[in-house]
Amino acid sequence: MHLTALAVSLALLAASGSLASPTLPLHAREVVTVTRTVAGPAATSYDWANGATPDFPIHPSCNATERVQLERAFAETIKLAQHAKEHVLRFGNSSAFYTKYFGNAPTAEPIGWFDKVVSADRGGMWFRCDNPDGNCEQEGKQCFFFMKRFIEGRIISRTDGDIIGWGGHWRGENATLETVICPLSYSTRWPLEAMCGNGYTVAGGATNAYWASDIMHRLFHVYNVGEGTIEHYADDYAACLALAASNPEEAVRNSDTLQYFALDVYAWDVALPGEGCTGKAPEGSSSAAATGSATSSASSSTTGIAGSMSAEASSIIASPTLAEVQTTTSDAAAVSYPHTE
Ligand SMILES: *[C@@H]1O[C@H](CO)[C@@H](O)[C@H](O)[C@H]1NC(C)=O
Ligand SMILES: *[C@@H]1O[C@H](CO)[C@@H](O)[C@H](O)[C@H]1NC(C)=O
Ligand SMILES: *[C@@H]1O[C@H](CO)[C@@H](O)[C@H](O)[C@H]1NC(C)=O
């Protein structure tokens, strides 16, 4: 290698005679030339970005219409996460939205998770449109997984079920970097432009009503983004608010909390500025039915751009009971949020 470099340098020197100063003696000229050649462009150049995967890989099993919808969904996911990050960077914990969802936790962790959605390398990941695990046709799983989750307190990894069929699922132990998007998603997910439309409210709607939040959730399952650290510690709106007060360390790495926060601040800051569509958890939901402690740093934070959120944030309740969760699930189906997963 060095010999080759030296040979090249000597050849260059002989050919041009212009690399070294003519005022130096001959032996000094040779030394200078060799040094330049070894450090020059002939050496192997390291490109840190070589082999990076900046775009979400869409599997060949996706047809043209699925592909174009997924590309749009990914762009919206990045937009949603980017705004959530910028909201926290701008307002920190002076935002009532921040304290409502993340309590008194430091801001760096949610910023980091949102930034991973925006910019983490997508190497090895696949979004597929076939049905390799045979889960897309399955029905009636949602109740089962809700029950399982609440009986166990929390679960380590969740297979995502749906009342009327599956919108998609993380392949889990079958392929940890792969996500299946089932046909149901293409006919049920809304674009971000529909934020606050169709009767949607953050508190009363499903976190997967929108493509962007649904994909965000699926990315949190994949190690590239969630690092096996983002978990399902609390699921529905009321439970997420309770978690912020009781356990901020888990709130900042709770999948649904991050989604609710992103949706809420996008609605308030971008879709309907200064108004948003936080809403209230529906009657008969765990939020309305449950009673419990309402102590929260969120409820005391009335300053900042979202001061009017304080009343909303003060309705924090304890985690729902199993019976309440089942009620919530059937209500959700009745009020036409069929795409629970
Ligand atoms: C907000 O963050 C500051 C530190 O930057 C901290 O002193 C304060 O307690 C936090 N407030 C809340 C409500 O978490
Ligand atoms: C893994 O594959 C098996 C059978 O192929 C299937 O029953 C199971 O549901 C799959 N797991 C997930 C998380 O999809
Ligand atoms: C692509 O797949 C979807 C199912 O997700 C199907 O409804 C649609 O007809 C397919 N489109 C084409 C062009 O084959």
TrEMBL record:
Gene symbol of the encoding locus: PRA1_1
Protein name: Prenylated Rab acceptor protein 1
Pfam family, one: HRXXH
InterPro entries: HRXXH, MetalloPept_cat_dom_sf, PRA1-like
Signal sequence coordinates: 1-20
Keyword terms, alphabetized: Signal
Domain Putative peptidase: 25-139, 165-280
Region (Disordered): 281-305
SUPFAM superfamilies, A to Z: Metalloproteases ('zincins'), catalytic domain
Compositional bias per record (Low complexity), positions renumbered to this chain: 284-305
